[in-house]
Amino acid sequence: MIVAALIALLGLAIVAVSARPGDGRAETAIAVPLVAAVAVLVPVAAAVLLAGAALAYGVLAVVTSRTLLYGRRLRAIAAVAGAVVPLGALAANTALGSPPGYPELLIVGAVVPGVLADDVRRQPRDRRGPIAIGGIATLLALALSGLVLRGSLAGAELSSIVDADAGSTLGAGSLAVLGGVLLLAVVTATLLRWRYAIGVGPISIPLVAVWSIDGVAVPVTYLLAALASTIAIAAVQPRLCLPGRQLSATVGLLGATVGVIAALAGAPGLPAILAGTFAAEDARLLRHHAGADLLDAVALDGAGYVLVVVALFAAAGGAGVLPGVLGGVGAVLAIVTIGTVLARRERERPVEERLRAAEGRWVP
């Protein structure tokens, strides 16, 4: 865990120092450092990201050359094409009886390769190559450095470290339920963002919900990191006016630091680091909302979190009358909250300009 934490902090620091406004969307600034950190513990993650991004970029190249599609439709195609590789890898490994560790990251993160590919496609032609090469080089350098350092600390060869993924203890049925719940959450949150211009986190909220099943350490870490990041942004950003990618990586570094501290205090290592970073990014994105929009975004995030937790707890066979009653009440309240918010938003649909601005931001 220590090595993964160091790689995440180092990667975010590199992006915070080197990022320029034209390098891509702010929301993708944290992707490469976090994938590199995951690859230290689950080495297949780096290969899956690169293969998925390459496939998505190829599909986008064909689609754009043969059709007039643009905007959210292209992003949806990229996300679906890029998701084929991580979901296929997870399915293949599960069929062979050796699912990789942290399968929830492959499920929820399946959209990341397509998002990165679309991010590169949106750049001017003369900058696509340098940006892609720089991202690949950074990912490989961070991941390999982490694996070598992990091997040195463990006194093992690099090849044995790469093959040392402990894997997941979940069976095929449990993985299928987990995949169905998480994919439904990701798709629903993305559609809400596109239709109502609400910054709901399709990646962060489902992951935090999954990690909540084993205890409250990770959701508490998420809340603390979000609070610290919100305060830091309010205090620093008006004075420094950092560009989007720099701000994303900088507050991500703060959130990851909170996650590392939580991990040292006993929280699950990698989930705490990722939750802290996602919380910082969510805090950065929520600053674009105010008034009713902010309340709606927070309400939908909370309701979505409750529904995912209840669904996963029920699927895991959670026993006891009190947990069942609390889960049922929580699910009803969450559904009522979502219905109330969406009914009002449907009556007050945002103008096209706001929808276009929202679809241009990827919310983790």
How would you describe this structure to a colleague?
The chain has a domain at 1-169. Helix 1 (2-18) packs antiparallel against helix 2 and helix 11 (217-240) crosses helix 13 (269-286). The protein has helices at 2-18, 31-41, 44-66, 72-95, 103-108, 112-121, 125-154, 158-162, 172-196, 204-212, 217-240, 244-264, 269-286, 292-315, 321-347, 352-359. The chain is mostly helical and 364 residues long. The model is unreliable at 158-169 (pLDDT under 50). It is globular, with a radius of gyration of 20 Å.
For the biggest sheet, the summary is: none
- Cα distance, first to last residue? 23 Å
Please state the average pLDDT score.
82
**What characteristic shape results from the CA principal axes?**
globular
Computed Rg: 20 Å
Measured by DSSP, the beta-strand proportion falls in: under 5%
Q: What pattern of helices and strands is seen along the backbone?
A: HHHHHHHHHHHHHHHH
Structural class: mainly alpha
Percent range of helical residues: over 70%
Low-confidence stretches: 158-169
